[in-house]
Amino acid sequence: MKIILALGFLLLSAYAFSGEDVELFDHEIAGCPENSSCFKEFGDLRKSWQALLKNNTKLIPRSAVDKKNVEYGASLNISAIQKFSKNNGFPFSFFWVQKYFERKELPEEKVMALWESACPKHQPAFEEKDIAKDFIFVRKGVAFVKEVKGDSIYLKGQEKDTSISLNKNFFFNTFYIWDSLKNTFQTFWGPAGEYPSHITSQFLEFVVAEDNWFFNIRVHPDQSWSLHERIIRNDLLHLGEEVECPKPLLEKWKAVEWRQWTLGELNCQKLLNENGEFSSYIFAGAPLCF
Predict the structure, then answer these.
(1) Measured on CA atoms in the order 209, 212, 214, 219, is the torsion positive or negative?
(2) What is the gyration radius of the CA atoms in the chain, in angstroms?
(3) pLDDT score recorded for residue 91
(4) Higher pLDDT, 249 or 100
(5) Is residue 70 assigned to a domain?
(6) Could you report the per-residue pLDDT of 134-144, keeping only the tens digit for each?
(7) Which pLDDT score, from 0 to 100, does residue 84 have?
(8) Which pTM does this prediction carry?
């Protein structure tokens, strides 16, 4: 019996580590992310997105020196991705915020998927009787965002696009950027859980991973965003360096109304400009853990 069990374990291990793209724990709704609360409408759109990435991927040889072990890279038809994103949006991450005792498992808008946040500050007490009446319940989510305009965001829907008020229940990261040379402030939204790689006079750029691909997402001062092929610049390959917060950012932080559901800590970093120089400082006005 032990031999049979051992053989079974070995076969299962070989299958699990064979390199196949296997989802062992499928969501009950096809296309919905694992362990999420999600509607079929979102699942169908995410399936289309995943199929698009798969069908527009082309393997290309990187080196043929060792013909027995040719290394393969991959290229992506970025124009097809841009066309899809223009019509359907891009899967951006966000925070969904509600008072705990007013929460719903899923919002009326059926165009998103939600999970519990990993941030300890966002977890309610184990016993419901110990949960404060005004406890803020924060969940993380993903939705195909087409447009951010004013105080509203527009999400792709099956029959029609859905408009949701920004900074009411739906929050992105908000980045306050202080140019230390010009002594000026700018405010940008950005995907939750992400930090920008650098800033230019025209946009704030993020490197966003999606289904093993990396995209450059540019958020512009007018709140519009654009998707671009990942172009690696060695002079911008620098992780954010935490620094002591300058006084102008400390003053700005005190004025942020929804500090109470952040981690309660101000996080400031140096930010590169397009010339590879540190000319700005940023802090994120939303939870740093996701």
Answers:
(1) negative
(2) 22
(3) 95
(4) 249
(5) yes
(6) 777 888 899 99
(7) 94
(8) 0.79
Q: Is residue 140 part of a domain?
A: no
pLDDT-derived band at 88 (thresholds 50, 70, 90) equals: very high
Residue 50 structural domain: 26-87
Token readout for 255 is: 């004025």
> For the chain, how many structural domains are there in total?
1
Look up residue 275 and give its two tokens. Answer: 């010339």
Q: What is the mean pLDDT of residues 207-217?
A: 84
In degrees, rounded to 5, the angle at the alpha carbon of residue 170 between the alpha carbons of residues 165 and 173 is 115
* Domain-embedded: residue 245: no
Residue with tokens 């069990």: 5
